[in-house]
C-alpha cells in the first residue's frame, strides 16, 4: 500500500466520523428549533388564557369560583406580575472620601515621609 493510498484511506475514515458528528449536530439543531417553536406557542397560549380569564372575571365570575373549577383541570389561575415594594433603584453604598494628604516632605536618609490626615 502506498503512502497516497494510506492517506486517502485515513481521510475517508475521518470524513465518515465527521459526517456522523455533523448528523448528530443537525438533529440537535432541529430539536432545538422544535423547542423554540413550542415555547413560543406556549407563551401565546398562556397570554390568550390570561386574557380570557380576565374576560370571565369581567363577565361576573369570581376568581374563587374560577380557581375552584380550573384547579381540577390542572390549569393554574393566571397571576399578575408582582411589583416589588422598592422603587427599583438600589441604594448605593456611600463613597468614602479620599484621605487628605499633606506632604511633610522631610528627607531623612533618602526617604520621604508623608502624613495622611483623614478629613
Q: Which bin fits the share of residues in helices?
A: 40-55%
- The ordered H/E elements are HHEE
User: Overall 3D geometry?
Assistant: flat
- Span between termini: 87 Å
Low-confidence spans = none
Q: Output the strand order for the largest sheet.
A: 1-2
Quote the average pLDDT. Answer: 79
- Secondary structure tally, helices: 2
Q: How many strands in all?
A: 2
Q: In terms of structural class, how would the helical and strand content be classed?
A: alpha+beta
Q: Could you describe the largest sheet, including whether it forms a barrel?
A: 2 strands, antiparallel
Please indicate the percent range of residues in DSSP E strands (runs of 2 or more).
5-15%
Cα-based radius of gyration, to the nearest Å: 35 Å
Region (Disordered): 80-100
Structure description:
The chain is α+β, with helices and mostly antiparallel strands. It has 2 helices and 2 strands. Strands 1-2 form a two-stranded antiparallel ribbon.
Task: Give a short synopsis of this structure.
Helices cover 55% and strands 13% of the residues. The chain has 119 residues and is an alpha+beta fold.
Amino acid at each position: 500500500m502506498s503512502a497516497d493510498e494510506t492517506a486517502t484511506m485515513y481521510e475517508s475514515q475521518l470524513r465518515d466520523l465527521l459526517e456522523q458528528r455533523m448528523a448528530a449536530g443537525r438533529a440537535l439543531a432541529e430539536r432545538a428549533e422544535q423547542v423554540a417553536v413550542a415555547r413560543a406557542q406556549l407563551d401565546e397560549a398562556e397570554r390568550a388564557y390570561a386574557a380570557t380569564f380576565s374576560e370571565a372575571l369581567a363577565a361576573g365570575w369570581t376568581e374563587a369560583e374560577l380557581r375552584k373549577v380550573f384547579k381540577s383541570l390542572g390549569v393554574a389561575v393566571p397571576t399578575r406580575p408582582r411589583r416589588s415594594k422598592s422603587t427599583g433603584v438600589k441604594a448605593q453604598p456611600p463613597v468614602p472620601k479620599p484621605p487628605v494628604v499633606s506632604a511633610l516632605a522631610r528627607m531623612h536618609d533618602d526617604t520621604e515621609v508623608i502624613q495622611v490626615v483623614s478629613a
